[in-house]
Design brief:
Elements: H1 3-17, H2 27-40, H3 44-51, E1 62-63, E2 74-75, H4 85-90, H5 97-122, H6 134-154, H7 159-164, H8 173-178, H9 188-202
Parallel strand pairs: 1-2
């Protein structure tokens, strides 16, 4: 995180969210320790050594690939049609409503996967989550999301975001095989209607 973004975040947390320092630590140090733990995935002992403090102070739809069954809450692509972005780049442009939808679906999935890749790379604690309670782990995930979005919004340049621009979703052979499997679950008709409505809007109908 850039220094300017760090101090801006400190100011926002103090001004808008009531974060206060203690007798032993300032807001700057509290936030610095918190970000150090999230970014490096270190334990309490290493934090104590690094900062010289004792241990006491320290309706929604999931966008899925074709391997998922068609069911309520899970929006997958049309099966049996071209899907992956490289397929469209190497060949002809989308032909027909279903390929138009699949191209948009694949592009959006690529953005999501790239976002998660950058997110996990920036916050190493997500790869080696300590044995905290479930509620605390949920709060850590939410905190890293919030700070991640804050940096994205305010940093002029960030090495992790810059690297993500080269990411491409090439797909996998396993995923291509799964596309041939026709399975439906509860609410499949609802998803079919929704997908057709989105396709019509993409076609301008």
């Amino acid at each position: 995180m850039d220094k300017d973004v760090f101090f801006r975040l400190c100011n926002d947390l103090e001004t808008n969210y009531g974060l206060r320092g203690s007798r032993r630590m300032s807001v700057i140090e509290i936030l610095g320790i918190f970000l150090h733990i999230l970014g490096h995935g270190v334990g309490n002992r290493l934090v104590q050594e690094r900062f010289q403090h004792s241990g006491e102070t320290v309706r929604k739809y999931y966008l899925v690939d074709a391997g998922y069954p068609q069911m309520s809450g899970y929006l997958g692509p049309y099966k049996g049609e071209r899907y992956h972005i490289p397929d469209f780049r190497r060949g002809r442009q989308p032909t027909g409503p279903r390929e138009v939808f699949n191209q948009a679906h694949s592009s959006l999935r690529s953005v999501i996967e790239r976002t998660f890749g950058v997110w996990k790379k920036k916050w190493k604690i997500l790869k080696t989550m300590p044995n905290f309670s479930f509620d605390k782990q949920v709060k850590i995930v939410i905190a890293t999301m919030a700070i991640h979005n804050y940096i994205k919004r305010h940093a002029q340049r960030d090495p992790h975001f810059e690297e993500s621009k080269n990411y491409q979703n090439e797909g996998t052979e396993e995923e291509m095989v799964e596309e041939s499997q026709e399975t439906n679950g509860p609410g499949s008709q609802e998803i079919e209607v929704l997908r057709n409505q989105i396709t019509a809007s993409l076609m301008g109908d």
